[in-house]
Amino acid sequence: MLPPNLVSTYQQYKNDTDSVAGWLASTAKAVGYLPSSLAQQLAKGTSARLKGKARAEAKKQASSSTEPAPGNRYIIKISDFVPLAEFIASKPDISIPNSLLATLRRVIVARGGFNEKLANEGASADERSDAKHGYFLSVLRKVHEILIPKTSTTASSLAILTDKLYADAEAEAETTGDDFSNRFAGLKLYEPSEDFLNAPDIERPKVHEGDSGTYESEPPSSLEDLYIALTMLMNDLNKIRSRTEWIWTNYRDGFFDLAACAVTTNTAIDLARKLMEDVVPMFDSHGGLWEVMNRYHIIQVMMKGYQPFGLSSDVKDNFNYDTYDIASNTYILTYRLLEAFTRVVQPRVVPLYKEGMYGYYDPQSDRDSKSGYQKFEEDRVLHMQFFTELMAVERAVRDYPVEDEFLRGIKELASTKEVPFYLVFAAQIFPDIHYILRENVDRGFDTLEMNLRFLDREIEEHFKFHKDLKIGNWGAGNDKIVRHLQARIQWMLADPVYREPVPTSMEPHLLLKMSPVLSGLVLYHFRSSMWEMGIALADAWGSITYSSHLYNALQSQRLMSDRWSDMDMVRTLIGDSRFFVGDTPDTLDECFKKFCLPVGTTAAAFTKKRRQNLPLTSRSGPRGIKDGAPHIAKVVDLSLWETEGSEEEGTLILGQADPEKLKSKPKSRKANKSLVLPPEELIRALMFALQGESLELTLPYTAMHRECWELLRAVRKHCDPLLRQIFTPAYMERETELPFVVGYILSTPVERKDMRLLVEAAIAVTEFVRSDGSTVSNLLESIGVPVIFKREEEA
């Protein structure tokens, strides 16, 4: 789920326009003036009430907000803007807020810049469309002219400031060499600079106090308006696309985890889908989205000095493939491929791709040296082969464990015979990743296969370890769930697409070999399932929690010179707050008391005063680790990880955030409701957050549970003579009570002032960690996740 304060550039522009309309109408209404169009809406009750899903969503937002729920919606005609401004200007007691002036100027610059850019490039424009566009622009300027005399000196100075900042931003857009921001410079619209966005008092004007209505500017209807919306959208989409290329370039170079890359990429495509939903309905009156997109592409081609159509003996259609790079940036070629694919999709049939039908893809060839048509041929070969694989899943495989946006879009295409835009965007990201990874594109599947085999072995080791070791907190139902998880892992390893009664895939695992995104999502899916199972197992037995209490007590009393690397890693990743109530204890008295809390018992249970057959634990069971890795919906805001240094200078590092800073972070986010996170920055933040959490999700808690249990066995065996002497042989009747040996050890220094047990336990733990204290770290290294330990004092 995406953050609610994230909006597209177009939505910000629309919000600006609506806020100007709302302030004009609400302010005039408050002092007795109503334009006829608004008066009719109020009299007839024809306000645009929210309905269906929109109304339910508004109620949901209102229930979780301290602000009043929105009232009726009213449409303010563009022709009413000037009369409203003139009436307001005639009232000496009405002050004009600085925010109105700033917002009005943002809208003027955004609209004016686009039209002038088209004219300067020699693009033709529909006269009626241009007239409508020019009319609204003149209205906005007239409103500004009417209201500026009533503004304060500060506001007038702000007007000068905004002129300068926008001029600087426009000049920068023409001259800067920043590859990321200008990779798609042909589509660039005039955008405010960072200085402008951070300038004081830049916020939208609010409606008059006590007015519960929601006001919107008359919806745009000209083709020019659609081009403005489309250009804004393309700017956002191509920034998202560039960010996904950044993700997979870093994956190729060994910096990012496969699963984190896949989840972030799929979220980026989902974000693109949500951004597009804002504008798609606007195109219906002009022939639909793809009719407008085609015209838009032609404009972009002409602005670059090309002819949109070309004839060549090597090409069967009249598309000018010399404009391939422009077509890639407007997504028109990918759409043409998908639209052609709809014609071969038939019910209950998998369209088979015959190898070599459109040539062959050579990942070792030099793409940069290829012509536009040769690049298109590469796209077509990759897409047509992959379309078959996706259709095989859609037609023949039930309960496939994951569904990325590409597969989701193919399913929608197969059902409706229409091409949704988000599918085009997903289909464009697909070859982008291939052209970054080239011959290494199947490395993602290799990683997935290695990890699935590892998880399969881990589950088998779990059942082997617990063959004769049972506990009430972990019943047969739990084992059944684990066996089901293992069966699903083995099902994936066998390739359900290739092993259908009639194989629909061209080779085993081709789908996952061709898609690092799907491979990464499958990996994330099974890692998450295994993580949940491992945490639940450790909670049921108390193994990791109780061992951490013993280890912490020995460390706090300086009875161990060696470090238990695996436990240090777990405590670092999960955080001590998952093990200890409150602060980490550093005295023996606190260590004992805080051990009793998660056990759910009293100190008396570990003394001679303990009554016969009194249970050591409470009925509610032990306090477990729980709540480890956060869900994706909260991973950005609540991430335990943050970046330091600079990407450009090569000094960027990812480190854990200061816990004190985290405590105030949600509050600061809540307080700053005007905060807007650009799409590409959200993706960057999500990528780093998921990368930071990847080790915690990968760590095999099943193995850590076994390691901790073996440690408790070693401690009990070493300390057994002394335990019998102090607590009688009845101190432990069955192995499931093994964790409570820790309670006896921690109680003796506090209750009996006897340090012998604690000292003997230190000897046992030290011997164990020297021989077996890195088992989990070694397992991680075996699946390509090496862990290097560096103490804080060394850092």
What can you see in these coordinates?
The protein is mainly alpha-helical and 795 residues long. The chain is built from 31 helices and four strands. The strands form two sheets. A two-stranded parallel sheet has the order 1-2. The chain has a two-stranded antiparallel sheet with strand order 3-4. The chain is globular and about 95 Å long.
Main attributes of the structure:
two-stranded antiparallel sheet; two-stranded parallel ribbon; globular; mainly alpha; 795 residues; 4 strands; 31 helices
Structural class: mainly alpha
Counted beta strands = 4
Q: What portion of residues belong to β-strands?
A: under 5%
Helix amount: 55-70%
List segments where confidence is low: pLDDT < 50 over at least 5 consecutive residues.
57-70, 121-131, 153-201, 665-675
Alpha carbon gap, first and last residue: 37 Å
Brief characterization of the structure:
This protein is an all-alpha fold and 795 residues long.
Secondary-structure blueprint:
Elements: H1 9-30, H2 36-44, H3 52-63, E1 73-76, H4 81-89, H5 98-120, H6 127-147, H7 153-175, H8 179-182, H9 194-197, E2 214-217, H10 223-252, H11 258-277, H12 289-303, H13 324-330, H14 332-342, H15 372-396, H16 405-416, H17 421-437, H18 443-465, H19 476-493, H20 510-514, H21 516-541, H22 543-556, H23 565-574, H24 588-599, H25 632-635, E3 641-644, E4 653-656, H26 659-671, H27 679-698, H28 701-727, H29 741-751, H30 756-772, H31 775-782
Parallel strand pairs: 1-2
Antiparallel strand pairs: 3-4
Helix pairs in contact: 1-4, 1-5, 4-6, 5-6, 5-7, 10-11, 10-17, 10-27, 11-17, 11-21, 11-27, 14-15, 15-16, 16-17, 18-19, 18-21, 21-28, 22-24, 24-29, 28-29, 28-30, 29-30
